[in-house]
């Protein structure tokens, strides 16, 4: 059964954190973004096209989220589940685990995404628009405000922290 959920907006460093936690604790993980990309590939769609399909057909979103929830409940499932809604699912399903949110201000997140994907002003605007569209979709589909910290046991502001500092903060929170 899942021990930790890691959530945050794009560019917050969740994937880096999960990789380091898996290394330091010999844990396994499941990335919600990977599940999304795998399903897109299975359907022969690009990520952008699959994202458009999800907007039109809500059953697709629901089925992907059900897969994450089932993985979280499975005693042989991953130790860590990373996705924007993983903390919410654990909270709503009463799964006893650490639910961690990594907070990073918008300018720093955009800077990180630009480094990762190439700096392009239009891409920055797309990111902001996509985040707001996702926020509205989560509210409409699940009555979840992604910016609410209600489900999280730990919230770390990583805006000015290095990856090592974030890992140390999370390790400390896990050991309490």
Query: How many domain regions?
Result: 1
Largest sheet: 5 strands, parallel
Low-pLDDT sequence parts:
none
Helix percentage: 55-70%
Principal-axis shape: globular
Number of helices: 8
The name CATH uses for the topology is Rossmann fold
Spatial order of the strands in the main sheet?
Answer: 2-3-1-4-5
Q: Give me the secondary-structure category.
A: alpha/beta
CATH superfamily: P-loop containing nucleotide triphosphate hydrolases
Q: β content, as a range?
A: 5-15%
Rg calculated over all Cα atoms? 16 Å
CATH class: Alpha Beta
How far the N terminus sits from the C terminus, by CA atoms, comes to: 20 Å
Order of helices and strands: EHEHHHEHEHHEH
CATH architectural type: 3-Layer(aba) Sandwich
Average pLDDT, rounded to a whole number, is: 91
Number of strands: 5
Can you walk me through this structure?
The chain is an alpha/beta fold and about 180 residues long. It has one domain: Rossmann fold (3-Layer(aba) Sandwich), CATH 3.40.50.300. The chain has helices spanning about 15-25, 30-40, 45-55, 60-75, 85-90, 105-115, 120-140, 165-175; strands at about 5, 30, 80, 100-105, 155. Helix 1 (about 15-25) packs across helix 8 (about 165-175), helix 2 packs across helix 3 (about 45-55) and helix 3 (about 45-55) packs across helix 4 (about 60-75). The mean pLDDT is about 90.
């Amino acid at each position: 059964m899942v021990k930790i959920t890691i959530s945050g907006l794009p560019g917050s460093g969740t994937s880096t954190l999960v990789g380091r936690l898996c290394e330091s604790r010999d844990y396994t993980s499941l990335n919600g973004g990977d599940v999304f990309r795998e399903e897109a590939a299975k359907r022969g769609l690009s990520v952008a096209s699959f994202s458009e399909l999800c907007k039109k057909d809500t059953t697709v979103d629901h089925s992907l989220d059900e897969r994450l929830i089932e993985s979280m409940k499975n005693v042989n499932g991953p130790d860590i589940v990373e996705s924007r809604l993983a903390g919410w699912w654990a909270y709503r399903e009463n799964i006893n685990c650490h639910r961690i949110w990594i907070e990073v201000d918008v300018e720093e997140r955009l800077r990180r995404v630009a480094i990762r994907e190439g700096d392009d002003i239009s891409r920055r605007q797309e990111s902001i628009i996509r985040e707001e569209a996702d926020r509205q979709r989560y509210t409409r589909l699940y009555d979840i405000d992604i910016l609410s910290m209600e489900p999280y046991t730990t919230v770390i502001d990583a805006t000015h922290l290095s990856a090592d500092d974030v890992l140390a903060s999370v390790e400390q929170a896990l050991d309490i």
